[in-house]
Specification:
Layout: E1 5-6, E2 19-31, E3 34-40, E4 56-63, E5 66-73, E6 82-88, H1 94-102, E7 108-112, E8 129-135, H2 139-152, E9 157-164, H3 173-182, E10 187-193, H4 209-218, E11 227-232, H5 234-246, E12 254-258, E13 283-290, E14 293-300, H6 307-312, E15 331-336, E16 339-341, H7 349-353, E17 356-358, E18 362-364, E19 368-372
Parallel strand pairs: 8-9, 8-11, 9-10, 11-12, 13-19
Antiparallel strand pairs: 1-12, 2-3, 2-7, 3-6, 4-5, 4-7, 13-14, 15-17, 15-19, 16-18
Length: about 375
C-alpha cells in the first residue's frame, strides 16, 4: 500500500529508518493488478528488520533520472529471514507499473527498516475481540494483524469486513480462506463487493454510512470489540471513525491507516523539487542536524519550500518515506524559528508539545529555522 498515514499511538518507541539492499526471493501474483513480493533478510540484518504486525517499509530505486520512494505495508505476521509486501498497480504509478511488469526473483532493491504505528496496543495483554474494516489494498497490514492476533492466544477473536469492487479484485482471497479454515470459530470474515451482487444484500454494494451501520448492528457488535483497525481510502476511514465516535467508542481503541489524505487542494509532496535562489531574493536559512552533523541550506521565501525539500538538496540521506505528511518518518524537533506545518496525520499531541514537526510539511515562516533529526 502506498502513502500510508497511521494514527499516532502513545509512548511508542521509534527508530531511525535506514536503507539496506535486500534481494527479492519471490514474486507471487495476487490479482491481475497486484503482486506479493518476498524479500530475503540475511542474518546480519535480522535486527534491522524486526517489525510489529501492521508496520510498513519504504522501497527506494532509480527509474530513469528519478529516484523513487514508495511505502508498502508488510503483509504477513513476523517471520524470521523474510518480509513480504503487496504492490498494487496505481493508476499512472511509475514504480507500481514497473514492479508488476518487471520485478523478478534475484533482483535487489533498497528497503528501509520497518516503521509505522498501525499496530495493536492491547495484544498480549489479555484475550480479546479485534475488528478491522479494510478496502482494496488496505488488507495488506490487516492480514498481518489478523494472523498475529489469532496466533497469539486461543482466546482472541478477529472480525474482518473487507470491501472490494469484484471478487477478481480481491487480494489475498485464498490466504484469507486458509486463515478462516485454520481458525473457523475465531475469525469472522465478511467480503463486501461493490460491483458484484452477492447472495447477501448486506454484503453487496457500496460501503456507505447506511450499510456500515447495518453491518455493525448485524455482524460486528461495537460494544464487543476491544480494538478497531481501519485501512483504506480517506473517505471510508473517516466514515468508520465518525461512526464509531458517534457510538461512543473511545479514540484510543481505534487505529487507522490511509492510502492518502484524499483531501482536495492538498499540496503535492515535495521531495527534491528544484529551487533556484536568485540575487535579491528574500531568503530563509535552514539548518538541520542529522547523524551528529549540522548542515545549512538557503531557501527563497517565495518558493514556499519545505524543510525536507531544502535538506535533500544538500544531503541525500535525510530520512523520509512518503513526503506527503503522512507517515512521520521525516519528523524532527524544531530548535529555532517558526514554521507552518501544512498537514499532520502522524504526530501525536505530546510530540507537538515537545516541538516535533513533519519536515516534509513544514514551511519556514522566520528568517532562520533549525531542526534536529537526531532527537
Amino acid at each position: 500500500m502506498e502513502s500510508v498515514i497511521s494514527a499516532p499511538l502513545p509512548s511508542q518507541s521509534r527508530r531511525r529508518g535506514a536503507f539496506h539492499t535486500l534481494e527479492v526471493a519471490d514474486v507471487r501474483r495476487l490479482t491481475p493488478d497486484a503482486i506479493e513480493v518476498t524479500f530475503a533478510v540475511p542474518d546480519e540484518l535480522a535486527h534491522a528488520y524486526d517489525y510489529e504486525p501492521g508496520q510498513y517499509i519504504a522501497i527506494r530505486m532509480q527509474i530513469g533520472e528519478d529516484v523513487l520512494r514508495r511505502s508498502y505495508s508488510i503483509c504477513q505476521a513476523p517471520a524470521p529471514g523474510e518480509l513480504k509486501v503487496a504492490i498494487k498497480r496505481d493508476l499512472g504509478g511509475v514504480f507500481s507499473g514497473w514492479a508488476l511488469e518487471s520485478l523478478a526473483p534475484g533482483m535487489s532493491l533498497d528497503v528501509m527498516s520497518p516503521e509505522g504505528r498501525f499496530t495493536s496496543q492491547v495484544l498480549l495483554e489479555r484475550p480479546g475481540h479485534y475488528a478491522a474494516i479494510a478496502a482494496g489494498s488496505g488488507i495488506t497490514p490487516v492480514i498481518a494483524l489478523a494472523q498475529s492476533v489469532l496466533a497469539a492466544s486461543e482466546g482472541n477473536r478477529f472480525s474482518l469486513v473487507y470491501s472490494n469492487r469484484t471478487a477478481m479484485d480481491t487480494m489475498f482471497v485464498d490466504d484469507l480462506a486458509d486463515l478462516k479454515d485454520r481458525y473457523p470459530s475465531r475469525l469472522a470474515l465478511y467480503h463486501v463487493l461493490t460491483r458484484e451482487r452477492r447472495s447477501s444484500e448486506l454484503l453487496s454494494g457500496r460501503l456507505d454510512a447506511g450499510k456500515l451501520a447495518q453491518i455493525l448492528d448485524a455482524l460486528v457488535p461495537v460494544d464487543d470489540v476491544d480494538e478497531w483497525f481501519f485501512c483504506g481510502p480517506f473517505e471510508l476511514v473517516q466514515l468508520c471513525r465518525d461512526t464509531l465516535a458517534g457510538r461512543g467508542v473511545p479514540a484510543e481503541r481505534i487505529r487507522y491507516e490511509l492510502f492518502t489524505t484524499g483531501e482536495p487542494g492538498s499540496p503535492a509532496p515535495q521531495r527534491g523539487r528544484p529551487i533556484v535562489v536568485d540575487p535579491g531574493d528574500d531568503v530563509c536559512t535552514i539548518s538541520f542536524r542529522l547523524d551528529g552533523t549540522t548542515s545549512t541550506v538557503t531557501s527563497a521565501v517565495h518558493s514556499q519550500e519545505s524543510i525536507l525539500n531544502a535538506a535533500l538538496r544538500v544531503r541525500g540521506d535525510v530520512p523520509f518515506a512518503c513526503a506527503g505528511g503522512v507517515c512521520g518518518t521525516c519528523r524532527a524537533v524544531l530548535r529555532e524559528g517558526t514554521v507552518d506545518m501544512v498537514e499532520n496525520y502522524a504526530l501525536e499531541p505530546d510530540e507537538l508539545e515537545r516541538g516535533y514537526v513533519l519536515t516534509c510539511q513544514s514551511i519556514p515562516t522566520s528568517d532562520r529555522v533549525e531542526v534536529d533529526y537526531d532527537t
